[in-house]
Amino acid sequence: MSKRKQKKEIPLFCIEFGKHIRALRKEKGLSIERIAFKADIDAQNLRKYELGKQEMKISMMKRIADAFEISTSELLSFDK
Description:
Blueprint: H1 12-27, H2 32-39, H3 43-50, H4 58-68, H5 72-75
Helix pairs in contact: 2-3, 2-4
C-alpha cells in the first residue's frame, strides 16, 4: 500500500494575496527577479507566492514588504 503525499489546499487569502503582490509589482514596474533579490528569496518561490501555489510565512511577508519599501500593513491592505 503506497502512501501518496496529499497536496495541502492553499487558503483563498493566500491566493488573493499573491495576486495583490503581482499587481503591486507590475504597478511599480519591477521584475520578479528584482523583488526576489531585494527580499533575498528565490525568484521561483516568489512566483509560487504570486500564483497562489504556496503559503507564505509572516516573516516572508515582512521581507517582501521591505523589498517594495512599504510597511507590512501597507502590503496587507488590499481588497480580499
